User: What shape does this take?
Amino acid sequence: MSLVGCLGGDGDSGTTTTTTGGGGGDTTPVSVPGIYDESGATSDVGRPTAIGSRDTIKYINENDMLGREIDHPNNDYAYEVPQAQQYYDQYTSGGEPPMIIGWGTADTEALASTVAEDQIVYISASYSANLLTSEFGYNFFGNLDYTSQARAHVKWIADNDPDAKIAFIFSNTAFGKSPVEGGKQYAEELGLEVGADINLPLTANSATTQLRKAKNANIDYLIHQNTSAPMQVLLSDAQDEYPEVTVCGLTYTVDERVVSESPEVFEGARYVNAFRNFQGALDSGGMGADIIEANFEREGRSMDNTSVAQLNYVRGVIHALLAMKGLQNAIDAGNDPSSGSNARQGMFGIEDDDMFGLSEPYSYEEGDRRPTMTGRTFEVTDGELQFDTTVDLPRRDEWIGL
Assistant: This one.
């Protein structure tokens, strides 16, 4: 493939320099393209994720972790579904790669039937539960699905404040709406009172109206599905409009950059994820920490620069590791890793795997591609995103796809 990645700032070229893997046997390179949002509506979280994946694929190649070079042509689709489709068509026009690392919910869901038909493993940054249904059998991700993230917050609230009233606040997008119905059902099951839904766009520059709705409805907790930019708007306006409300954000709403920039705004916000934040990753002491440290040293990145040194970078590292582990399992089974169906079987070889210490253990099964049902909850305290506790959810079959 001749496609090259889009150029970006922070000294990041957007391309992967690789060396040919050795180690005997077939060393034919394997193509794993990337479709990233580095300039669109979710680029505040998309760019550090993309950098984490590119850095780690470079590390994998330079350290011969797979025994084969991973080619990683990648492009910025700016969160536009037609652009994602165009890049997908280009990546697959000269032969189908076994895997693609993708991004958003709307574009990933739009491509889900196609990747299943083409038999291409699609490792996305969308954690939509809809992607886990049987018809979309080639979609994988490395986190709690969005609905289970919401359920983790709901369970924590029910355990700690059972008389509370909650409401969901989210962008009117496939991404935003994904966790709402299943999350509300679980909240009602646990005996929580649930208020009316509230919309907050990805591009919001004010949340005053939304907070007044929450205040008038006596909402104690807002469960927020959005990215960090509208989260910052929501929390900033809450200081004046409704300081009593607690905002519980899903995986893209909080990161170290926004916390460090506005610590007083984010103070008290709650957060959920299935993997470690950046400092937690470094403190884990495992190979994942070694990879991150080596990446930052190689690229001349500063550990103090939270535009990259943040949990979304860890997210990108995990995406690259998932791709490598799926391909490695295919190779270990004696199968050709350039085949998407073989790569898919390799993903099912990932069992009780904490991604070199970076996450809760992930396992994938043919009938259940939810990697984990354990949420790691955090709270912003004294200007830092601090781990609080884990929330274990039941693995109910009826929750697959909801």
